[in-house]
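Worked example

This section walks through a single chain of length 176. The input is the sequence exactly as stored; nothing has been trimmed or padded.
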Amino acid sequence: MSYRNELVPMLALLLVMPWITTMAGSPDVTLQGLDGKDHHLSEYIGKGQWVLLSIWGPGCPPCIEEMPELQRFHAAHHENNAIVVGMALDYPSFDYADVLDVKQFVDRHAISFPILLGDATIVEKFGGGPLQATPTMLAFRPDGTLAGLQIGQMTGELIEHFIRDYEASHPADNTP
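Given that input, the structure is written out below as tokens.
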């Protein structure tokens, strides 16, 4: 499949939901980390970098397939313009995931980006409506406002193109 054929559905989804790009800053949701401590999403979102919040489950086949792409993207961008933050939930119930299952997955796949635990209600708190499927990605601008939501697998290349295209079409929004 060509880049254009993959990107068109993603951009179409984002453009069909224009209300999502006009939202105020993200709510300060608190989620438990794999370290057992509470983490506020404001620790990551609105800090001058793009934040890609990936909602996934360790038993979700497309999520498992997507993880190496997200890890590569995070490794390439986390010191500059973008980070990935994962929110693990149980698949297929969309309830809270088993911490041990998530830790084993993270270790097995050498995931270096932050992983938090949540459930389906988190997407609604960001104004993304009910969680439809996993993986789902929420893209937050450097200032912390929600720029888009993607249901389904992403590649690092598609994320880079989305950020580049978004910044080109919203030049006034590019400052934190």
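What to look for: Residues 80 and 129 are 30 Å apart (CA to CA).
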